[in-house]
């Protein structure tokens, strides 16, 4: 207290300024009301000396003064660099190490440089002479355009008249399966060979830009992936209208190629290959089901009415597929509009004419064909209806499960 050079100063009354003092002085706890800071934490320029009667040399702090001297330090206080600054620092350290290493290397080699100076000059003269001779030889040869260690080839270069198609990229079974759905290249080639024979017999007079091979590939890609004609015309290097015309034309050709592959097997053949899930349905001759495919909205009003499917909520075409118990597709009906019912397609498709008396037809609940099958002497195997009952009976539940297991293969094939 006897030392007049030390003075004590209270914290500012302003909250923001007080908070700045607390941060600088590292005040972890709440600051007491009577806390003061000694003058050792301030610079001489921070004070104003005032003259009064009672204290002739009273020191007061200026308004916006913050403690800046003898500030407390903690052992855990450490300046953490940002990732960018850390990279810059490490990079500079590596550069210093490299420069030091290079300096030592050059310092050790100064003596060798003096002894090898004469030898290097002789090598330079010899190298210059050899380069001059090489340049003279290159200039005399007419067919050598450049003198380079490597030959640069443009991978996009094509000779005049060359047209590449997507078939140039299909090289294995996996590629042909992804684009067309045909499992192997060999089977695709067989389809093309049959198509070429049919075209020869029909004696087409129309000239096509693409051969049968590429026209069939184009059509199968459209059916499998349903990509636009604009994309197809780029892949096959033809116009958009030509691409659409080839598709419509090749659809008829594919019908002639694949139609003979759908055969109606004999009853003995089916019984020999029937799977275990049909052990309770040995008389089953065919499993039928309908399928729909979306189409573009027709321009004709009558066609719009016939093709609109209330079940799908859009314009579709509909046909019925028949599959033998062993998984072979044995029947494909004509194409109907989406408005046609499964019963109408079944009765007009002619599949009952192929069945014999005593055969069984398996269908789902959508085929209300009890009367048609009874008149043809064919048994109908169909999941039981719940009707007004709350649940199926025990026998109906067992039958429903067995029929569902047998029909699982039908849904997989479609």
From TrEMBL:
Signal peptide: none annotated. Its cofactor is a divalent metal cation. One of its GO terms (molecular function) is zinc ion binding. PROSITE patterns: ZF_THAP (PS50950). Pfam families: DDE_Tnp_4, HTH_Tnp_4, THAP. Gene3D superfamilies: THAP domain. Keywords: DNA-binding, Metal-binding, Zinc, Zinc-finger. Transmembrane segments: none annotated. The keyword DNA-binding applies. Residues 1-70 form the THAP-type domain. This is THAP-type domain-containing protein. It comes from Acyrthosiphon pisum. The lineage of its organism: Eukaryota, Metazoa, Ecdysozoa, Arthropoda, Hexapoda.
